[in-house]
Automatic annotation (TrEMBL):
It comes from the Bacteria. Gene3D superfamilies: 1.10.246.130, 3.60.20.40. Keywords: Transferase. This is Gamma-glutamyltransferase 2. Threonine peptidase. MEROPS family T03. Transmembrane segments: none annotated. It holds the Pfam family G_glu_transpept. GO terms for molecular function: transferase activity. The keyword Phosphoprotein does not apply.
Amino acid sequence: MHDFFRPGRAPLIAGNAAIATSHPLATAAGLDILGAGGNAVDAAIAAVAVQCVADPLMTGIGGDCFVLYQPAGGEVVGLNGSGRAPAAATVERLLSLGVNEIGQTSPHSVTVPGAIAAWSKLHRDYGRLPLSRLFERAIDYSETGYPVAARVACDWAGEVDLLARTAGATATFLPGGRAPKQGERHHQPLLGQRLREIGRDGAAAFYTGKTAQSLVAYLNGLGGLHTLEDFAEAQDGADYATPVSASYRGYEVVECAPNGQGIIALMILKILEGFDIAALSPVDRIHLHAEATKLAYHHRDAYLADPAFCPEPMSMLSDEIIDILRARIRLDRASTPVLWSEPEHKDTIYLCVVDRDGNAISFINSIFDGFGSGHVDPTTGVLLHSRGSSFRIIKGHPNAIAPRKRPLHTIIPGLLRKDGQVAMPFGVMGGHYQAAGHAQFLSNMLDLGLDIQQAMDAPRSFAHGGVLEVEPTIPEADLAELVRRGHVLKPRQLPLGGSQAIWIDRANRTLIAGSDQRKDGCALGM
């Protein structure tokens, strides 16, 4: 039972449908669609469109998305809405241009955005209400303004230098020359126009015609290799892919297939499954999770890439490999990871919906860095993401840039199933943390017996880049013990990630939803 004397949220309980997002306006928009007869897909698209407006540093129509969707009585569908490199992009071409590494603000960091193609395909195949209806609230907030939420304002203030670099970003996101403060209203009328066009004409309004022409011209002006043909091909670029899964504590954990890192979440869980997690002390659990994460992420950075260019590394989930990795873990001593040069990324939104018919969707949309590449086309108002910065300019590397190739992706929606039925759509935001976050969240629930909200709110840590990032809610005595074991601690200045989930209680015919207190969002139901 929830302790009402302690700070924190209680889980939401609903009888017919529920939605959980990281922004209250998005949650309300999705609930409105559910009340109007829309299904889970409709509600998710309506909610993500609002987040593209009201949480612009985290997501946008110039980004990518991944989806796991299980129709009631059907099989899980995985949708890959990640964009591809331009056809002219090769390691040799970039090296000839003097590019040895793709930075956040480089035009080469902008793969052709895949989100709108994915939204359109998902809506065409599974939606119920017109796309124009789904965008109504997002368009209204774009044109009449929306109040800037607390966490959004906090993060926005940290990106002023990036936004001040270009005229389009300054005009759009620094009104009056500064970041909006909490409670102030912000407008994006050009984004509203794009959403209105997409609602009327579908994905073609983004990938062809004046919008595509303007985006290509803008990127070419920065030295990008993009063409109108690259954008036109991307209109049908989202594709369905069979998800990957593994068992954990009697449940099936389902993740999107590579090029996303969902398989790494499964790898961490398989390593953890060999330990009696519930019997360990809190500091042992932090240490064990860190060690499993380091092992799995090393394999991620060495082998994970677009499966169209490299074989899917399913052997990483074999019992033989997992046993070998698990045996390397010492509970009394931290290992020294092999480091790759991977910058921190955190800018993603995640949402989930279960509707009255039992359809469940797990949906994630991202621009990778805070405000993506920092580039806003001043003609269209489209903020462009920076996912291409994950490519390597190294010949022979699995994640080397290549024509029409997708980069390694950090964003991963999740589904938990029991006996072939959805038990919980869930997801954790936070860039590279997401795979580790999936494992940590599920272990909190399935090993420690925490409820959905407690599992989200529990203190977090993340072993990455040679350090162990720790939230200040971890006790000082545990931090001291982690240092004694050899961990190099890095205190978090901001909360680590965010999460949403909806548990389907079939025995009581109710839905139990949670939304991470680290963000502005909430869960609502009906």
